[in-house]
Specification:
The structure is a homotrimer. By secondary structure, chain A is mainly beta. Chain A is 7% helix and 44% strand. Chain A has 4 helices and 26 strands. In chain A, strands 2-1-12-13-14-15-25-21-20-17 form a 10-stranded antiparallel β-sheet, covered by helices on one side. In chain A, strands 9, 16, 18, 19, 22, 23, 24 and 26 form an 8-stranded mixed β-sheet that branches. The radius of gyration of chain A is 20 Å and the shape is globular. The termini of chain A are far apart. Chains in contact: A-B, A-C, B-C. At the A-B interface, strand 2, strand 11 and strand 12 of A face helix 1 of B.
């Protein structure tokens, strides 16, 4: 039998709520390794009322935002910062985010996470879509940038610590994106890490709780600033096809894998990818590597679950959020109606689920980073690389 | 002199706020009957910060939502559940409700109450109306579905317990729907029940606190799922006229009073009524009765106060909120501009008030339920029944 | 060295938050003068969660709203009330304010302050402007009435009490109006008063924290009801030009400086001013004076910092907010696109700042009030007065 210590932190339906709580290796009589889990409620400013769980496995630390859809705010590995410095200083309570301002770009007012999910009903650009209203009429309605889940709180959260070697810390959360007559989607996430490990795993299941078929989209917006991002950093991935999102991105297609120093006033570019993957397992990886090739972060996922990938390059001034995003998704973050027309929207039957697993792995040291780089090359060698010079169908509707 | 114990729970202007409080029959030295009143503040998820008062008269229990306009969330009578199971798991704090999303249908993101008021300035379908802005210009503005009051918190709440036989529990609340240059409406509600009784009374007064005439609308959206609603349940009322709201509802006009088992993917239907009432008192009733005719819930009200009635039938899959609503109102929940054109908007002079009393009564046992059914038949016999086969003026603008 | 007692109340980035705190002259061993500073968090109704700092210098009291952009809610001097009685009973937590309702007039749902800033990116009438979106496209977007800063919380707040004679109380706050790809403006305010003084000083610095040039607007909306405002009250200022904002205001131009008793149903009027100022210092003042000329409130500011002035006259029924506003600003509160076309939008380079100092001074007694009146006359005598009879360019776009 496993030696698991469990703690329910939030269960709204059951009336359970723990405002603050902390457990460490010492609390359970372990001398080593050192680890801790802490639940807190932030106070003041835009963060007032945001509930967080801070995980420290002894080497890797990260902060999970219960109040923001189980996003991961910031992290660090052996003291190296993971995440980015957004002009928005959060974490931001959803009460301060109005998705509709600035032409449905209001999501940006709450955006400063390292890893934030875009979804669950829609995950792309803002714009209109045709939905069925309560009276059975087809009506044009606005979809907000990147969907709603990042601004919805978990109604249930639980910590499970497995004390048997190697030992692990798991945080489980449930978030409902549910509106009468519209979507009834539930995210059930498990975010876990082993004691001392250099990686965390996000295992998500999205379930259609409606008595009718329902649509779903997911994109993991994983964002990196310094020190991982710097002049000379590279993006590595086993690319089958890469295409610029739009005209501005087209200008950067020949150099999509490389990063400049901060450029004041630069406009973001985005590149859309189809990736190669291991033929048996379907798993692939993408890597962001610093200039000296001694620091990297890899995302590992299955192209069967997350077949589309977006690279977001926003190397603006440091103050403006010098940042890049590696974004595996069920689709590309175009307007949902376009994605639907390309068959890139997941349809779930009543009660149906969609599972996705994303591993986030940090590499320190030239050898480790080289191993990650080789991994991408090995998968790259399996197929041919096509670089689309211009934004075009079926990737973009330009 | 009466023996009343009073407790102010919230009075923002006076700086009074009680976070949690509880009193029972034992606390006041009464051996019997058993009753309790409890004030709590919910924590976590969408409910974080929602203030509730839970009333238990010994037989009837219900939860009043101070933070959601003094709605009644759920109830039970002798263990029989009253209310419904919405896809939304609330109660939902208004900070998580943006009325404007989904074409001004955002109200639905917070909707899971047993009894919720629609109003105070408008109470119907979303759409545009012409309002006077601060500069004296007539401008087209959006009205949200079902108005604002359900997402406004009470600034004052008080409990009054009358210990003299028969004994009663009253919760008084005040909610302001007030915006400079626009409506300045105050709801003053008293929600009361006698010890051990099978009923509660909602006595509302809406006052125009503006120095100018002001409009007001009110509709009591009283919602029932299982066990009251099931295949074979019936709606009983002394009907003078019934008309379908729209084309889809028209299909169900011949069978409007009966309920099917849950139907996956069904579109809601709505029926509009004029009811007969007691000639002297103006009082009438509507009843929802289960299949075996041994469980019923009746609404009692005056057609002088609430002359229009809507029956909402949404017997979708259980997961989608298998539910029906009995909805007495000052008007029909059409777009306000249409209601105004039919003279169905209340106009209040400066300082003027409008009073409404709604009794909610639960019947258990065949005899009790039969008595309620007879009551509707007796009033029915006073007049003739007209069934409009199609949506039409003056009920609907189709 | 000065004898300053400092206390950090909120510092979100540093994880500092003081829920409640109070210090008085006695706490620091001073027998006299009497003064106090108190930090509290309001609970219940629309005010739930609003953090306030209440300052009492022994004669002048005021409440600073940390959660509403460091607005000053209400005040009093020697027991005379300063501020007004809005139909909105606040202070209102921003979670209850949706800027977009009622055609982008939603700001009004939170408006009941004595002194509230309009800004930082825009400060005027609601309407559309053309902004650059994240993809580098120019898009039409809505600007809300009076901007966002009043509904943004301070992420940092600090009290500094100088115990050396004459002694003073300073509250420092920082508020960010920051959205990725859009404005990144920081307000740093110091609100200070000397022990026993009849005045407070608001010293604001707005900084463009973006790596690109950024626009900024500011207007101090200082609002007065009774007793300062009454039939026979006067507005005094050294006017160079006054112009009515619109057709309705035009009707009142000949009598712009005088106030009637409450008029039921009156439509607001607004007058736009250029003021004379001291040639050396650039300082000027405006005064609101009661009928008996024994009570006045003066605003002192520099026309070099705040070159445009608006007088808002809204002498409606007492219940509707009988009120006038003296509003020095960087511009006139027209739609931003119009102000930009007239060169009345501040452009800040990357890292650039704009400083503004506003003194608010209360005068009691005929002699004091006469001195203030003379001050305005003296500055008036420096120039000529032009009264525009009609709304017109360059003041209004009518």
């Amino acid at each position: 039998m496993s030696n698991i210590k469990g703690k329910t932190l939030v269960d709204v339906d059951a009336g359970v709520h723990v405002d603050s709580w902390r457990v460490t290796n010492e609390d359970v009589g372990m001398a080593a390794p050192r680890w801790s889990v802490e639940k807190r409620t932030l106070r003041g400013g835009l963060s007032d009322g945001v509930e967080v769980v801070e995980v420290d496995n002894g080497a890797l630390r990260y902060t999970i935002l219960l109040t923001r859809g189980m996003s991961i705010w910031r992290g660090s590995y052996q003291g190296v910062e993971l995440g980015w410095r957004s002009p928005v200083h959060g974490p931001v309570h959803p009460a301060f985010v109005n998705e509709m301002i600035l032409g449905n770009l209001g999501w940006l007012a709450g955006f400063d996470e390292w890893i934030v999910r875009c979804g669950l009903y829609s995950n792309g650009a803002p714009g209109t879509d045709v939905l069925l209203d309560n009276n059975g009429n087809r009506r044009e309605m606005s979809l907000p940038l990147h969907g709603r889940v990042a601004n919805l709180p978990a109604h249930r959260a639980e910590v499970r610590i497995d004390l048997d070697p190697p030992g692990s810390i798991e945080v489980i959360g449930e978030v409902d994106e549910s509106i009468l007559f519209f979507q009834q989607l539930r995210l059930r996430t498990s975010i876990s890490t082993a004691f001392g490990a250099n990686r965390l795993r996000i295992s998500d299941v999205v379930t259609n709780r409606k008595g009718q078929p329902g649509e779903m989209q997911m994109l993991y917006h994983c964002n990196f600033g310094p020190p991982l991002l710097e002049e000379g950093s590279s993006f590595l991935a086993p690319v089958r096809v890469v295409a610029p999102r739009d005209k501005i991105s087209q200008e950067g297609i020949s150099n999509y894998a490389n990063y400049p120093a901060p450029v004041q006033g630069i406009i973001e570019k985005a590149f859309y990818f189809e990736l190669s993957a291991d033929l048996e397992t379907g798993r692939t990886l993408t890597v962001l590597r610093n200039k000296r090739c001694d620091l990297a972060c890899a995302l590992r996922f299955s192209t069967r679950e997350l077949p589309w990938f977006t690279l977001w390059k926003n190397p603006g001034a440091m103050s403006d959020g010098y940042v890049t995003g590696m974004e595996p998704g069920t689709n590309l973050p175009n307007l949902k109606s376009f994605e639907r027309s390309k068959g890139r929207v997941v349809e779930l039957p009543p009660g149906g689920s969609y599972s996705m697993t994303l591993d986030v792995e940090v590499g320190i040291g030239k050898e480790t980073v080289e191993r990650l780089s080789q991994e991408t090359r090995k998968l790259q060698d399996m197929g041919t690389l096509t670089v689309r010079q211009q934004p075009a169908q079926p990737y973009s509707n330009v």
